[in-house]
Automatic annotation (TrEMBL):
Motif ('HIGH' region): 12-20
Family: Belongs to the class-I aminoacyl-tRNA synthetase family.
One Gene Ontology molecular-function label: tryptophan-tRNA ligase activity
InterPro entries xrefs: aa-tRNA-synth_I_CS (IPR001412), aa-tRNA-synth_Ic (IPR002305), Rossmann-like_a/b/a_fold (IPR014729), Trp-tRNA-ligase (IPR002306), Trp-tRNA-ligase_bac-type (IPR024109), Trp-tRNA_synthetase (IPR050203)
Protein name, as recorded: Tryptophan--tRNA ligase
Cytoplasm is among the record's keywords: yes
Keywords on record: Aminoacyl-tRNA synthetase, ATP-binding, Cytoplasm, Ligase, Nucleotide-binding, Protein biosynthesis
Length: 329
């Protein structure tokens, strides 16, 4: 039986954090056997917010190394850099021309990100979901494993595929989001009402980066915002404690009842200490692998080149068909 094809991407903006890992990358890694996998460092998405060119270049390669360190296996998955394959931006233009402005205006991520920087809202940020649709549709992807925050963009990609197929004939596979319950929305440690985000990493206790040292991880969890109730339970109305328990569950894979029993009668200090220990242990092999990979630049470039040529073959076929159907010469 043919495996379903999975596509997902991650932006090289800032340092990859626990939310990116638990919401997306960990699932990519764990399901590599089950699916046919295509993973991409989406650097063209990153420039929808102004970036320093040399830092962007460096972070792009760093993130590729980090994905391999997390366990992306090049024998089971295609890994490549988005800007190396021009069909992504070419298809994004074709999709832009069939997407109503109203659909893009409804995107909550655009509203959030433009509210953060109201004096410099770039057209690229508004159009970003079409580039994401192009990423997904180019590879005829069945499934898109993402965190909860990306659900709306995947729905737009589905609508776009359905619209194109209706108007120009069957062309794209209509993708489905793949969002797991645990880890789908990891919140900021400093403010558990806001999602953990790379763009807030200037706040010192907001996020845990995968490259943070054990000392830093302990320090950040110690400062995590909780509440004054003093009871350790999976209660969504108590966002701080819930977030810590959610992170703990992602690493220990224990059931809710087991975790609540483990912490019955304990204080928040103990909870923070145990969560920090679980995270440190869970991230240790990743940090070690990342350090090793950072000195193996030739290996990294070879993997990326192989990924690129495999991805290009699929992307070129889909783009050619789409272009012809639309009537472009
Ligand atoms: N807090 C989160 N919890 C769970 N999943 C998350 N993801 C992001 N934040 C969380 C998922 O990580 C994948 C890669 O995200 P991205 O880098 O492409 O885009 P993003 O959502 O814009 O990531 P950030 O970290 O929040 O960056 P900024 O600050 O730029 O907005 C996606 O699958 C995403 O769902």
């Amino acid at each position: 039986m043919q495996k379903s094809r999975v596509f997902s991407g991650i932006q090289p903006t800032g340092n990859i954090h626990l939310g990116n890992y638990l919401g997306a990358v960990k699932n990519w890694v764990e399901n590599q056997e089950k699916y046919e996998n295509i993973f991409c460092v989406v650097n063209s998405h990153a420039i929808t917010i102004p970036q320093n060119p040399s830092i962007l270049r460096e972070k792009t390669y760093d993130l590729c190394a980090m994905l391999l360190a997390c366990g992306i296996n090049p024998k089971k998955s295609i890994l490549f850099i988005q800007s190396k394959i021009q069909e992504h931006t070419s298809l994004a233009w074709l999709l832009t021309c069939i997407t109503p402005m109203g659909d893009l205006s409804r995107m909550t991520q655009f509203k959030d990100k433009s509210a953060k920087n109201p004096k410099q809202i770039l057209a690229g940020l508004f159009n970003y979901p079409n580039l994401m649709s192009a990423d997904i549709l180019l590879y005829q992807s069945n499934l898109v494993p993402v965190g909860e925050d990306q659900k709306q963009h995947i729905e737009l990609a589905r609508d776009t595929a359905i619209r194109f197929n209706r108007d120009f004939g069957e062309t794209f596979v209509v993708p489905e989001p793949l969002i797991l319950k645990e880890g789908a929305r990891i919140m900021g440690l400093d403010d558990p009402t806001k999602k953990m985000s790379k763009s807030s990493s200037d706040k010192p206790n907001h996020s845990i980066a995968l490259i943070d040292t054990p000392e830093t991880i302990i320090k950040k969890f110690k400062k995590a915002t909780t509440d004054s109730e003093g009871i350790i339970a999976f209660d969504k109305n108590r966002a701080g404690v819930y977030n810590l328990l959610n992170i703990y569950q992602c690493f220990t894979k224990q059931k809710v009842e087991e975790i609540e029993a483990e912490f019955a009668g304990q204080g928040y200090g103990k909870l923070k200490e145990r969560v920090a220990e679980a995270v440190i242990e869970g991230l240790r092999p990743i940090r070690q692998a990342y350090e090793k990979l950072s000195s193996e630049k030739d290996y990294l470039h070879r993997i990326l080149q192989e990924g690129e040529s495999r991805a290009r073959e699929i992307a070129a076929t889909t783009y050619k068909e789409t272009k012809e159907k639309i009537g472009l010469i």
